[in-house]
Amino acid sequence: MSGYLFKGCAAVVADPATVLRDVDLLVKGPAIRAIGKGLDAEGAEVIDARGWFLYPGLVNTHHHFFQTFVRNRADLDWTKLSVIQWLDLIYPIFSRLTEDCFYHSSLTAMAELAKHGCTTAFDHQYNFPRHAGKRIVDRQFEAAAKIGLRFHAGRGGNTLPKSEGSTIPDAMLESTDEFIADCARLIDRYHDAGPFSMRQVVVSPCQPVNCYRETFVESVALARDKRVFLHSHVGEGEAEVIRARHGMRTVDYLEQIGFAGPDTFYAHCWELTDAELRQTAASGTGVAHCPEPVYLVGAEVTDIPAMAAHGLRIGLGCDGAASNDNSNLMHCIHSAYMLQCLVAGTRAHPVPEPGDFLAYATTGGAALLGRSDIGRLAPGMAADLFAIDTRRMDYVGTRHDPASLIAKVGIGMPTDLTMVNGRIVWAKGEFPGLDEAEMAHEAEAALATIDA
Questions:
Q1: What is the average per-residue pLDDT within 163-183?
Q2: Does the keyword Hydrolase apply (predicted)?
């Protein structure tokens, strides 16, 4: 038996602008071989896909997996604390995490992502407590391989001491040399720039307010030398702090350093001015929009219509569980669209179409990560996809517009199947070959070590 033939799909959403009805989809190896009517199995396993909508696998462009171990805690409720009070409570918890905690929290987040249709995930791992060692990202690659997720590791770091204006306790600090050396090690060990790559590394200093300028300068030099991508937090309330320190707001500061361009994407950007959005678009820099922290953090709703109008490249991210208590990128598509509708009357530009929000989570995310082999369903593309069986009461009256379904209606349950690189990683409520109850038990045991 070789490959899979999805027979009789009710719809294949090749991309949000292209919906194919009543077709088959053939997967051979890691790639899609063909999409059309009456395809022959060619020795492939036949999957009855009647009633199924097939979508491109979702691409998560910003997360903090380790924060999965601090979610749903009343004592860390944003709504009851100031930001400084919250940071003073949560960073000591972060600094107690062990190497095993980082592994199991990553496994937890990636399992939830896969259940909800995510096939490629970028994680911004910026927490490196000294006692936990330098193998944290290595363990994340191990977790990704176990789940079967395509993983882009953002090797983050913080170098500026709290005594000089950062929010980072000394236990989580690294020197610039330490940070750059480990980025180089990870790139040499794991980064694969080839087609259908399952492992890539992104140089990702945490954020300008928590790092020395030299950290960003050296990050640019390393990334350009190694031909890898760059990422950081930008425009989430720090712009005036950067102006006070460096005489300019964050976008200008980073462009002066060279931390901008088609190989660079920023997280958040909700505080950028219209001129800064134009400037960011002109440089080719992309934005990972994280809609769900708006609910908990209370920050303003990011002006996605303006970003889209200026041609800024947009992807979607879950963000970490400190400001979003789930790892469900599918839910973020619905949240992103609904939040923009909520404030539509205050915007200069119209809300993008519902299908555009699916595009941000698929083709948009792929573009942010520099991938041309994922993000849509077509022959030759990676077989990254998920399936929703619409023969349920939940979908009565919705099936006429598959491209808008996720943004407008929302999906309230796990997928019926998630496939990554031609491998089924989630189907029929199970991770094939894995014991979910055992994984959950081991993760809870690791979590208990930081609460002891």
A1: 95
A2: yes
